[in-house]
Amino acid sequence: MNILFTIFLLLIPVFFLLTRWRRSSKRLPPGPLGIPIIGQSIGFLRAMRANSAEEWLQQRVRKHGPISKLTLFGKPTVFIHGQAANKFVFNGDSSMIANQQNESIRMILGDRNLTELSGNDHKRVRDALLLFLKPESLKQYVGKMDGEDRKHLEMHWNGKQQVTVLPLMKILTFNMICSLLFGIEKGARRDKFLECFKQMIEGMWSVPLNLPFTRYKRGLKASITVQKMLKEFIEEKRKELKQGNPSQRKDLISCLLSMRNEDNEEVLTEKEIIHNVMLAMAAGYDTTSVLLTFIVRFLANEPAIYAAVVQEQEEIANSKPSGEFLTWEDLAKMKYTWTVAMETLRMVPPVFGGFRKAVKDIEYGGYLIPEGWQIFWASSMTHMETSIFPEPSKFDPSRFEKQSPVPPYCFVAFGGGPRICPGNEFARIETLVAIHHLVTQFNWKLLADSSFCRDPAPVPAQGLPLQITSKKNY
């Protein structure tokens, strides 16, 4: 009897564990997880490249409902969407939901970048980045951005009859990054940096299979090289700062190195500086170049909107002495142009979606999201929702005028809540300055259809080739 009683006592916790497992498994969202590690990743990436990812997700919604499970990029994942889901993702309690990108992005950009941090670490790093990226600090860089745009157009647009927009916009945004974030001027060093940087970007959204000849493997290798180069930049900036030259603090790396706590120690570790500079590089390179490219495409297809943008920008240009750089006050007058940019972001968000991680078991929408699982959201699922944006397929910048505010957590091109992109003001300035020079110096006509794919950022057909003519009176 004693032996039977002992066995019974030992079986009690096993019984409760089995009961909990069964209860939990029944409450998991519907949908198959598929093959471990790979799961639905290949199908999703194929849909992205065919520009059918929204439909791919809608099919899941029709089949499994608004919440479903799958495997993406090596991890079991729960897909959620809608206004409430966006609020949950961007405003969630850090003790329940952590900021985390997929395995490929985390391994290539590093585990101490802002998208991987939560709680006090997230606030500390975000506050440090905002000292450089907040509007009050960025005002002084408007003229420098203007100068970079003029040099770019002179080199790559002037005297041409045809241009291909996307690769040129990537050149422009990369040069902006090097100039303003690192203080690296043109030359062999910048060219080598660009070569490694491109390979790193290509590996960020890929299946994390560390095998020869895969995008992921090339991305990891490029990431190591980029981090070594950034470490060299940091050492150089440290030496410059020790010399006490205040002019050397006008780039992101110098700004981060200058920050000290109460004990006169650097606020960020070297690893955090490297990983967050890489994040800023990746975010600024792809997103702004895509935004500029698709603004050009929409303006070519919308003559009335194009005319309104030209009128706004020419009024600003005509109010200034010839050759004078744009100012912060000029940007404040570009209200309509920015609504065009916002509508472009709604219809073609550069970032399709993102990931979070369940820190512990979470109940959401009547289902269990188990601890450690990924949570995947997609921005276009609310951007193209008819109940939020009537006639969502129509390009209508008036949606973003002040008299018709968009409901919270419905437009999430820049994220939302405490997770809103810290570089959104940098992107706004960069976009407005570039569009000002494009519409006041050139007319253009599309030479390809308006289709595009995602790889993972939107890529227009043939890179968006244009026929351009110069406006001689500029």
From TrEMBL:
Pfam family, one: p450
Iron-sulfur among keywords: no
Keyword terms: Heme, Iron, Membrane, Metal-binding, Monooxygenase, Oxidoreductase, Transmembrane, Transmembrane helix
Topology in membrane: Single-pass membrane protein
Main location: membrane
GO process annotations (BP): sterol metabolic process
GO cellular component terms, semicolon-separated: membrane
Compartments in which it is found: Membrane
GO MF entries: heme binding; iron ion binding; monooxygenase activity; oxidoreductase activity, acting on paired donors, with incorporation or reduction of molecular oxygen
Keyword Oxidoreductase attributed: yes
Cofactors demanded by this protein: heme
Coiled coil ranges: none
Binding site for heme: 421
InterPro entries: Cyt_P450, Cyt_P450_CS, Cyt_P450_E_grp-I, Cyt_P450_sf
PANTHER family: CYTOCHROME P450, CYTOCHROME P450 26
Family the entry assigns: Belongs to the cytochrome P450 family.
Name used for this protein in its record: Cytochrome P450 716B1
Source species of the chain: Ziziphus jujuba (Chinese jujube)
Taxonomic classification: Eukaryota, Viridiplantae, Streptophyta, Embryophyta, Tracheophyta
